[in-house]
Specification:
Length: 359
């Protein structure tokens, strides 16, 4: 038996309880978690913004040590450090054939499986394949990737979602170039990664935008050259910082209609606006036909940073080793499983960067 944070039903509080995991079967890996990040997507799953079979063990951003492997697993062995990959690509669907592995049609095929059972026999599902809000988990072999050498496993947990997403949004989706300008809307875990990625890309002006003035220090430490409180005048303020043009690239990480609209209006004519945040169906964003023509901007969605984790983790590891990417600076609170509900409340209130569950 291991301890885990279980979502009994949509909208219900998480319950910290003991669960029983099966032995790893063919093509499966058992992992003892070192740490798991508390991501806004977990909150979205718990409140029904995103659909998930329940009851479920949430948590999708994690890293740990392999305890055991089932038959047929050869790329990792007991004792290896691994990063969990919550959206593994199948390699055979239409999108994978196009090289768009982040849009794999079968990436979430495992969320309906039975992952574990409670002490009284209730079957549990893995929230986003990997069920990282637990001391241990059993996952499909393609849900684990070797952790970068020399990166502490607790820090490596952030590579499983926030960093791949934020870095990928800047480098793969928006394709920010050296000397360009950027604005990042929402200074949470993903936003902090995006700010660091913009600095790594060589952006000259990097504007961080958030609803909380307490985020300024975090934002500037991550690479922001300017910080603005989100308001109706944010686009005008950003144009004032960029000779009246607007930024070349806007990265929206909040998933709110107002933030998406503000990011769009803050982007220069011909620039690129990338939406990373996951908003609900009630978050309606409107554009008129004339402005779309006139501004010539590109508006694009971004899933998992448009990343290929297997290819991108070695690149991120090199940035970490070179001191260009600081994972620990993104963590504003280290907690136990019992601290997840408070971390959810902080995210709702717009407080802090990344909360990290440390086992």
């Amino acid at each position: 038996m291991v301890r885990a944070a279980v979502l009994p039903s949509i909208g219900s509080p998480l319950e910290i309880t003991e669960i029983e995991l099966p032995e790893p079967g063919p093509g499966q890996v058992q992992v003892r978690l070192a740490a798991a990040g508390v991501c806004h997507s977990d909150l979205s799953l718990s409140d029904g913004t995103m659909r998930v079979p329940v009851p479920a063990v949430l948590g999708h951003e994690g890293a740990g040590t392999v305890v055991a492997v089932g038959p047929g697993v050869g790329h990792v062995a007991p004792g290896d450090g691994v990063v969990l990959n919550w959206a593994p690509s199948c390699g055979g669907c239409h999108h994978c054939a196009l090289g768009e592995v982040w849009l794999c049609a079968k990436a979430l095929a495992g969320v309906g499986d039975v992952h574990a059972v409670t002490a009284d026999g209730v079957e549990l599902h893995p929230g986003l394949n990997v069920a990282a809000f637990a001391e241990e988990t059993v996952v499909a072999a393609n849900c684990v990737l070797p952790a970068p050498a020399s990166v502490p496993l607790a820090d490596a947990a952030l590579l499983g979602c926030a960093v791949l997403t934020g870095y990928g949004a800047v480098h793969h989706s928006a394709r920010l170039r050296e000397g360009e300008s950027a604005a990042v809307f929402g200074v949470g875990g993903v936003g902090l990664a995006a700010l660091q990625a913009a600095r790594i890309a060589g952006a000259e002006t990097i504007v961080a935008v958030d609803v909380s003035p307490a985020k300024e220090e975090l934002a500037r430490a991550a690479g922001a050259t300017d910080f603005l409180l989100a308001s109706e005048t944010t686009p005008k303020e950003i144009r004032a910082l960029t000779a009246g043009h607007g930024v070349d690239v806007s990265i929206e990480c909040a998933g709110r209609a107002a933030a998406i609209r503000s990011a769009w209006e803050s982007t220069r004519r011909g620039g690129r606006t990338t939406v990373v945040g996951i908003g609900g169906k009630d978050q309606q964003v409107t554009f008129n036909a004339l402005e779309i023509f006139h501004w010539g901007r590109t508006l694009s969605g971004c899933v998992y940073g448009n990343s290929d984790p297997a290819a991108d983790l070695p690149v991120l590891a090199e940035h970490i080793r070179a001191g260009r990417l600081d994972l620990s600076a993104m963590v504003t609170e280290r907690i136990g499983l019992e601290g997840i509900p408070a971390a959810f409340a902080d995210m709702t209130a717009g407080k802090g960067g990344r909360a990290l569950v440390v086992f």
